[in-house]
Write a structure and sequence with these properties.
Blueprint (H helix, E strand, L loop, with lengths): L1 H25 L9 H11 L7 H25 L1 H6 L15 H18 L8 H15 L10 H21 L4 H22 L3 H6 L5 H5 L1 H25 L4 H19 L9 H32 L1
Subcellular location: Membrane
Membrane topology: Multi-pass membrane protein
EC number: 2.5.1.39
Length: 308
């Protein structure tokens, strides 16, 4: 009897870790890198004038992870039938039968509860708790947008731009131009690269009467819109550098990011979209992590020289 129980325990553990790995793959956990650094950058900027508290840092990380995980899992649930019909996405976890609807619903529910509970770490500031459900509603609402608007890309970017605003409010209980400009950077940046990513599904979206900018205006025009969106990203980045009173280190970062955005559009064209994956993940991950690192470094350097 003991041998049966002892053999069942490792098997159960293996099954648990396999399921967890599948769930992390479902929500593309690695893509958390797109929004989390901006929330942390907003926090670092806020901590210049407000005391640092470790619970606030933990709260920001937990809220970001739970909110994004809930939104992604919900999206996979809502889009499971569409994904099953699309050759590019038919191998995703739900249509491929890797994960059941019941498990994904349970995972989404856990993430929703985890997000709301994580906002309690910011008490006595009640704003994160008050805004938790409206924010979640907006994040989850994105999953329906391809059914009625070509501007679904900017609903997604608006959802992600809430991260620095939410982090700032959670720490300060107020709002100012610094997080608003950082949010504007995310809005135009994410909207632009999501348009690029959506070009892969242009023909499928048109055939299924789904809405997207590439489906509406074609790949060539969509890439022009994406480029203009990224030009506005650069403008907002320089505005953030100026309004936030950041220094040379961050300015160098702004210039480098502007170059990366231009390079992102240089490596793709309507006649050659083979490097969309590179443009989507590699370059954009470098942009988000790089801006946070250089922003934090700029503040450290400024503080060092102000004390010497």
């Amino acid at each position: 009897m003991q041998s049966i129980e002892s053999s069942a325990t490792p098997a159960t553990a293996v099954s648990f870790w396999r399921r967890l790995k599948d769930l992390l793959g479902l929500i593309r956990f690695s893509h958390t890198v797109f929004a989390l650094p901006f929330a942390l950058l907003a926090a670092v900027l806020a901590w210049r004038d407000y005391p640092f508290e470790i619970r606030h840092l933990i709260g920001i990380v937990l809220c970001m992870v739970f909110a994004r995980s809930a939104a992604m899992a919900f999206n996979r649930l809502i889009d499971r039938n569409i994904d099953a019909e699309n050759p590019r996405t038919e191998g995703r976890h739900i249509p491929a039968g890797i994960l059941s609807i019941r498990i994904v619903v349970a995972f989404t529910s856990v993430c929703v509860v985890g997000f709301v509970l994580s906002t309690l770490l910011f008490l006595p500031n009640v704003w994160p708790v008050i805004l938790s459900l409206p924010v979640l509603g907006f994040l989850l609402g994105y999953s329906y947008t391809k059914r009625f608007t070509a501007f679904c890309h900017y609903w997604l970017s608006a959802a992600l731009m809430l991260s620095p605003i939410a982090a700032w409010i959670a720490i300060t209980g107020t709002l100012s131009w610094t997080p608003v400009l950082l949010a504007a950077v995310i809005f135009f940046w994410v909207g632009g690269f999501d348009i690029i990513y959506a070009t892969q599904d242009q023909e499928f979206d048109q055939s299924e009467k789904l809405h997207s900018i590439p489906a509406k205006v074609g790949t060539r025009n969509a890439l022009i819109i994406a480029f203009l969106s990224h030009v506005l990203t650069m403008v907002c980045l320089f505005g953030l550098w100026w309004v936030a009173g950041l220094g040379t280190v961050f300015l160098v970062g702004v210039i480098l990011v502007s170059g990366l955005l231009i390079y992102e559009h240089w490596i793709i064209s309507p006649d050659d979209m083979s490097r969309v994956g590179v443009a989507f993940f590699n370059i954009n991950a470098l942009i988000s992590v790089g801006l946070f690192a250089l922003g934090a470094a700029d503040i450290l350097v400024t503080n060092f020289f102000s004390k010497t």
